[in-house]
Design goal:
Number of domains: 1
Helix content: 25-40%
Largest sheet: 3 strands, mixed
Number of helices: 2
Structural class: alpha+beta
Radius of gyration: 21 Å
Strand content: 5-15%
C-alpha cells in the first residue's frame, strides 16, 4: 500500500512538471504556424504584384487572385491555365484557419473584422495580418497582429 501511495505521488509530481511544458509547446507551435502562414501569404502577394504590373489583388477577389489562374487585369479567374488566364496560382489553397487568439479557427479574408474573418487584408498597403486584438500577444509579449 505504501508503494502505491509513493507511485501516485511521483506521478503527480511528474504531471505537475510536464503538463505546463506541453501546453507551452502547443502554443509555440501555433505561433510558428502563424508566422509561416504570413510568410507564405506575403510571398504570394509579392509574386502577384510582380506578375500583374505592380497591381495588388482587389479585396473582393483576394482568394481567387491567389489560388487560381488569373488574367493580366486580375479580374478573370480559372482553375486551369487558359490563353486568357495564365498568371498564378500563387497558393495551392487559401490560407489555413487562424491558429491563435480569440478568433482561432476563423478562415475568411476581409479588410476589417467580421464573422469568421481570420485574416485582414489591406488592399491599399498590400499587407495581410492576423485578425487579432492588440491584447492578444505571444510568449514574448509581441502582438499577433504585428507579426
Amino acid at each position: 500500500m505504501l508503494e502505491l501511495v509513493i507511485v501516485i505521488i511521483i506521478l503527480g509530481i511528474v504531471a505537475a512538471i510536464a503538463v505546463p511544458r506541453l501546453s507551452r509547446g502547443s502554443q509555440g507551435a501555433a505561433e510558428a504556424a502563424l508566422m509561416q502562414t504570413l510568410v507564405v501569404a506575403r510571398n504570394a502577394l509579392d509574386l502577384y504584384v510582380a506578375e500583374h504590373g505592380g497591381q495588388l489583388p482587389q479585396i473582393q477577389f483576394i482568394t481567387a487572385s491567389l489560388t487560381a489562374y488569373s488574367n493580366e487585369a486580375g479580374t478573370a479567374f480559372s482553375g486551369l491555365k487558359t490563353d486568357k488566364c495564365y498568371f498564378g496560382p500563387y497558393l495551392r489553397m487559401p490560407p489555413p484557419p487562424l491558429p491563435v487568439g480569440r478568433r482561432k479557427g476563423n478562415v475568411g479574408i476581409a479588410e476589417s473584422d467580421g464573422p469568421m474573418v481570420g485574416w485582414i487584408y489591406d488592399e491599399a498597403a498590400g499587407t495581410i495580418r492576423a485578425n487579432c486584438d492588440d491584447d492578444e500577444v505571444d510568449a514574448a509579449g509581441v502582438q499577433y497582429n504585428k507579426y
